[in-house]
Write a sequence for this structure.
């Protein structure tokens, strides 16, 4: 049914869509600025409800049916800081599939070093400034304006469009996308295609991310008087031996592992581990002189990022093998290891419909080939894959990845215009291309 004639009609329709977005810069800047003015700082989760309500009103005015879904009991949820998500659905009136744009509304704290007010939504020199401009209120605005243009061209269409604003991505997404996924909101038949407008640069399609293993290692010793340490057993010295073994054996080994996943930046194509925290002995918040004790416990938190080629057993085994050997070499060395979090690496197939649609749209709008990338860190796609079991999902959004979480964060209005065009075209392909034969 998709003969030459249809393609020509298609070309005319998509040209009208692109034209409609040509002058959308002011609308994009205004909407991004409006979103930035809600200081949705996480933690603790400020201003979630008013921000969600603002998005809900915007969607209702464009014919969406809107629901607010609070994740009662999720980490951080309280009456003071409710985890309120917003989800809007617009039926096209014809049978078809559903395309969902998901953005997180939370931002990280502003931090130091700003030369502008981080929550004023300043528009200047073709940029919008503020915390969340790039990550990811600008991307959210681009998806909303793209959908608005699509609806103006096609009030009746096959399938449905959903837009959600979800909370807590910056702290793991449990009260946000994970919660909605548990309710079936990221699975067929509710949703078939998901685009997450995270800032990955406008020519890139992000297919997934590396894996994560967070764990706490505790070395154990024996308490004694600090003037007679030979009577005890110092847990901090045991931890010193652990760090030394990591330096000599583990870090060099990880640096040699390279993935075939197209991870950016290049340094993240290797396997990595960060020592996130270490603590032993007297508490840091203790005032005054310490009491003279030999510490009997030292704890370290490791943040290990692994590759799709690495089996999870190997990732853990490399660490426990070192600890077991130290237990054999060092008299009295004892340890405990506790898993804190585990996320498997993820990569959407390059020929999945949403990847092809977004890549084609990048080619048409930007006149260059889309770059397929994988993120060094995880984002909400993990919940859509694991809980929703939907593997037709990408991150695509305007905004320069390196500006996320930094002082004077900004997004270029031109990039948002380009990103909105790409999203509108991809939406068009997914909805009209997915129309079932009559
Ligand atoms: Zn983000």
């Amino acid at each position: 049914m998709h003969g030459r004639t249809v393609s020509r009609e298609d070309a005319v329709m998509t040209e009208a869509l692109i034209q409609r977005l040509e002058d959308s810069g002011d609308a994009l800047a205004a909407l991004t600025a409006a979103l930035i003015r809600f200081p949705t700082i996480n933690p603790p989760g400020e201003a979630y409800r008013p921000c969600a309500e603002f998005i809900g009103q915007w969607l209702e005015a464009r014919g969406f049916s809107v629901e607010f879904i609070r994740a009662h009991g999720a980490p951080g949820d309280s009456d003071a800081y409710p985890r309120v998500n917003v989800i809007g659905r617009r039926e096209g009136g014809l049978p078809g599939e559903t395309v969902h744009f998901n953005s997180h509304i939370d931002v990280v704290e502003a931090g130091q070093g700003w030369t502008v007010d981080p929550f004023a939504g300043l528009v200047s020199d073709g940029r919008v400034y503020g915390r969340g401009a790039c990550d990811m209120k600008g991307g959210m605005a681009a998806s909303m304006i793209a959908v608005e243009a699509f609806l103006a061209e096609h009030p009746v269409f096959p399938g449905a469009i959903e837009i959600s604003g979800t909370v807590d991505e910056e702290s793991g997404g449990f009260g946000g996308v994970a919660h909605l996924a548990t309710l079936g909101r990221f699975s067929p038949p509710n949703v078939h295609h998901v685009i997450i407008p995270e800032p990955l640069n406008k020519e890139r399609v992000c297919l997934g991310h590396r894996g994560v293993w967070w764990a706490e290692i505790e070395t154990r010793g024996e308490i004694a008087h600090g003037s007679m340490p030979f009577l005890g057993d110092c847990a901090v010295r045991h931890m010193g031996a652990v760090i030394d073994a990591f330096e000599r054996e583990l870090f060099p080994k990880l640096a040699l592992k390279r993935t075939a996943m197209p991870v950016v930046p290049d340094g993240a194509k290797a396997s990595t581990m960060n020592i996130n925290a270490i603590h032993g002995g007297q508490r840091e918040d203790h005032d005054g002189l310490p009491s003279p004790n030999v510490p009997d416990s030292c704890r370290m938190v490791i943040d290990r990022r692994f590759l799709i080629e690495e089996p999870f057993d190997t990732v853990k085994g490399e660490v426990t093998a070192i600890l077991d050997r130290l237990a054999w070499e060092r008299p009295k060395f004892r340890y405990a290891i506790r898993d804190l979090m585990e996320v498997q690496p993820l990569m959407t197939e390059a020929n999945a419909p949403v990847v092809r649609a977004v890549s084609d749209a990048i080619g048409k709008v930007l006149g260059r080939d889309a770059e397929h990338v994988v993120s060094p860190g995880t984002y909400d796609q993990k919940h859509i894959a694991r809980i929703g079991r939907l593997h037709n999902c990408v991150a695509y959004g305007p905004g320069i990845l390196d500006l996320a979480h930094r002082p004077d964060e900004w997004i270029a209005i031109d990039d948002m215009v380009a990103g909105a065009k790409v999203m509108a075209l991809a939406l068009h392909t997914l909805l009209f291309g997915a129309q079932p034969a009559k």
